[in-house]
UniProtKB/TrEMBL annotation:
MF GO annotations: metal ion binding; transmembrane ascorbate ferrireductase activity; transmembrane monodehydroascorbate reductase activity
Compartment list: Membrane
The name this protein goes by in its record: ascorbate ferrireductase (transmembrane)
A GO CC annotation given for this chain: membrane
Protein species of origin: Mauremys mutica
Pfam families: Cytochrom_B561
Membrane-protein topology: Multi-pass membrane protein
Stretches assigned to the Cytochrome b561 domain: 14-217
Transmembrane stretches, start-end: 21-38, 50-67, 87-106, 118-143, 164-184, 190-210
EC code: 7.2.1.3
UniProt enzyme class: translocase
Lineage: superkingdom: Eukaryota
Length: 222
């Protein structure tokens, strides 16, 4: 017997809730895994993978999932509270990313090594710069009157879309980091494949959330 629209909708929401919960656990688990692997404080370099995974795997993922209608940890809170929490996590993620970039740059300098010569280094630099611009652009949503030629609805759509691009850049940078000598000498076999799967899974969840909340809604509007 064919499923009713209501039943299909209920199943779809349940699947999104499960995927959202999985994203919460994966983002936290991956960050803890990298922290154990890097042992922050054991060397100057050790802070770089820890801070970057904290920024782009955990904090940024949580900052976006806060708006998920099915799996947000703040579902009972007001929209205003969610926005403030989103801002706090995004700023904290940016600070961690900037600090991680500064540490790896200084570490390269101390060891007389060239910087930004690998795909990971270039993508990481682009991601941090993009995240900085995204945070600055987010100010327009706090003070929409400054953007006289743009409606608040349009600003939200463009901010969400550009934010998704930034998040995907962060995930790509994390995946490229897992191809580095530091990571591949320690993590091999099935563990390596499972590690690579983590940012892929969270990016798929975030893409689905943003698409349903903004992009799909924009397409169906007359």
């Amino acid at each position: 017997m064919a499923l009713t629209i209501e039943t299909e909708s209920r199943i779809y929401r349940s699947l999104r809730a499960v995927s959202g919960i999985t994203a919460h656990l994966v983002s936290l688990g991956f960050t803890i895994f990298v922290a154990v692997l890097a042992r922050p404080g054991s060397s100057l370099f050790s802070w770089h993978p820890f801070l970057m995974s904290l920024a782009f795997s955990f904090l940024m993922t949580e900052a976006l999932l806060v708006f998920s209608p099915e799996s947000s940890l703040l579902r009972s809170f007001s929209r205003k509270a969610k926005v403030r929490f989103h801002w706090a996590l995004q700023l904290l993620a940016l600070l961690c990313a900037l600090l991680g970039l500064a540490i790896i740059s200084y570490n390269k300098y101390l060891n007389s090594k060239a910087h930004f010569v690998t795909w990971h280094g270039l993508t990481g630099l682009l991601t941090v710069l993009y995240a900085s611009m995204q945070c600055i652009g987010g100010v327009a949503l706090l003070y929409p009157k400054l953007m006289k030629n743009w409606t608040l609805a349009k600003l939200k759509v463009y901010h969400a879309t550009s934010g998704l691009v930034g998040y995907l850049l962060g995930c790509a940078s994390l995946m490229l980091a897992m191809c580095s000598l530091w990571f591949t000498t320690t993590v091999t076999g099935l563990s390596w494949y499972l590690s690579v799967l983590c940012p892929i899974l969270t990016s798929l969840v975030i893409m689905n959330q943003v698409s349903n909340a903004y992009l799909y809604r924009k397409r169906i509007q007359p």
